[in-house]
Amino acid sequence: MPTITQFEIFVKVIDEGSFTKAAQALNMSQPAVSHAIAALESELGVTLLVRERGKDLIVTDIGKRVLFQIRNILNSLEKIDQEVSLEKGIITGTIRIATFPSVTAHFLPKIISTFQQIRPNVSLTFKEGSQEEIKGWLTSREIDIGFVVLPCDELNTIPLVKDRYLVMLPDHHPLLMNRSVCLSDLENEHFIISNAGYEAPMIDLMRKQKMTVNEKYNTSNLNTSLALIKEGLGVLILPELSLKYLAYPKSNIRPLETNHYRHIALGLPSIKDASRVVQLFIQITKELFE
């Protein structure tokens, strides 16, 4: 029968993306990690990973399905440890949390500080990514809980805060004469689109209202977006929290007149099946936002 150690090594190899990095993280030799994976594959009678020198590690289709079940097994064992510790009067465990940049910058430090003061024996680990990445990590059980943007129908969610949308305009733009901007004012403007998808809900709303949307530039870096705006090459829609620490003149920013907001929430596969420490994290985080 496969062992729990083999399961843990297999998961670590997937998460780290290589045998070498997994060996370093586990404080093992690389041959020992390779042997453990080979033994697991032999025990199961299937190929879980395809590894070729100089190429990225490939998880086979059966490897992905097995990985999902192994994560569930390891998560269940973690819950058992937590229940046993609780019976002994100690709350321990690990919470794997996914977040995105504006939450990381504005909310996470306070949440961590408060949680660790209350439960110092619980470890918190973090992974930052896009909304699609976070949803994927939650679905695959790679993380326990994440910060998501609503709507998010595929997960159980706990709403936390709403974030209004703003428009960043270049110098001398005619819309700077207005105290606020309507979506209809932005029709035919050259849009700078962020790969992070900050403005996606507003762009979708414009299209639903049959407005013309001119996506002129796509960027993966907000500093690049700012440089394009300063050169008068387009406008950018961003949620307010994402703008807080950006070096851009406030005089060139206008609120977007709309009843639509970016709603930030906690998301997880099942609130009912969440471990004790994850439920505690939900409780503490909700209290901080009330």
UniProtKB/TrEMBL annotation:
CDD domains named in the record: PBP2_LTTR_substrate (cd05466)
Residue ranges constituting the HTH lysR-type domain according to the UniProt record: 2-60
Protein origin, superkingdom: Bacteria
GO cellular component: cytosol
UniProt keyword Transcription, yes or no: yes
InterPro entries recorded: HTH-type_LysR_regulators, LysR_HTH_N, LysR_subst-bd, WH-like_DNA-bd_sf, WH_DNA-bd_sf
Residues in coiled coil: none
Keyword line: DNA-binding, Transcription, Transcription regulation
Transferase among keywords: no
One Pfam family linked to the record: LysR_substrate
Family: Belongs to the LysR transcriptional regulatory family.
PANTHER family: HTH-TYPE TRANSCRIPTIONAL REGULATOR CZCR, HTH-TYPE TRANSCRIPTIONAL REGULATOR YBHD
Name of this chain's protein: LysR family transcriptional regulator
Natural source organism: Neobacillus bataviensis LMG 21833
